[in-house]
Design a protein that fits this description.
This protein is of the alpha/beta class. Helices cover 45% and strands 8% of the residues. It has a 4-stranded parallel sheet, with helices on both faces. Helix 5 runs antiparallel to helix 8. The longest helix has 23 residues. The mean pLDDT is 96. The structure holds nickel (II) ion.
Length: 249
């Protein structure tokens, strides 16, 4: 069930039998010459919807923005500062917890979000602990799951791409986004095939070192067919992980 398409009455009913919710979170940032700017949000969203269909679970609206300062030299990127993102996470957790959601599963598509999401969780718990009334009677459990680190996804990605997977604008995420949005597939030739890989400092330094936006990857290997395989691997792993998480008392 999709929260945006539901009524409050349906949500109240859902809460009688389940306290779990999946919140997809991504970023709006450049993904190289053939990757979609929405890649990091599109990927966890399509996986979350697949999991929800299989488990009759509830999916919250996707958080489409993330911490993406280092991509700001590329047009189209929209970045939140870390403090904005962590406040947003804290407020979303607090809102859901107020209604009785106890198992909040953030399904993430962007590495830069990891630190602020955890900081947002900590802000929520700090306020609960420090409030005059102390912790609420029913604990709220939050977790962060990075779809590209699911064991079956890692195995499949290694098999399909080896060292061409790289670190940013990877063929696995581009394939999955193409599977989710077949009308947006791009045909672009990439040179060099595998992008350079290095560390970087700020946004200007990033564009200087990685002029087309990719890091260490060859997304020219991407296809809808690969995306479909990655989708099923991710949905299976996340179904299992979400189910185990919801059994946490
Ligand atoms: Ni990405």
């Amino acid at each position: 069930m999709n929260l945006q398409n539901a009524t409050w009455i349906e949500i109240e009913k859902y809460l009688e039998k389940s306290s779990g919710i999946i919140i997809p979170i991504g970023s709006t940032e450049q993904h190289g010459p053939n990757g979609l700017i929405g890649t990091d949000a599109i990927c966890p969203e399509v996986i979350a919807n697949g999991v929800a269909d299989k488990l009759n679970a509830l999916v919250a609206p996707t958080i489409n923005y993330g911490m993406a300062q280092h991509h700001l030299e590329f047009p189209g990127t929209i970045a939140l500062r870390p403090s904005t993102l962590l406040t947003m996470i804290k407020d979303i957790v607090a809102s859901l917890a107020k209604h009785g959601f106890r198992h909040l599963y953030f399904l993430n598509g962007h590495g830069g979000n990891i630190a602020p999401i955890h900081a947002g969780f900590s802000e929520f718990y700090s306020e609960q602990t420090l409030s005059p009334n102390g912790m609420s009677e029913d604990s709220t459990y939050t977790t962060l799951s990075n779809w590209w680190r699911a064991p079956s996804v890692i195995k499949l990605t290694e098999e399909l791409y080896g060292n061409a997977e790289g670190l940013h604008a990877t063929p696995s995420e581009v394939s999955l986004s193409y599977y989710a949005r077949p009308d947006a597939v791009k045909q672009v030739s990439l040179s060099p095939e595998i992008a350079p890989s290095d560390c970087f400092y700020d946004a200007k330094d990033y564009r200087k070192r990685f002029p087309d936006g990719r890091i260490g990857s060859n997304p020219g290997l991407s296809s809808i067919e690969h995306g479909e395989r990655i989708y099923h691997a991710a949905v299976d792993d996340v179904c299992q992980h979400f189910t185990e998480f919801c059994l946490t008392t």
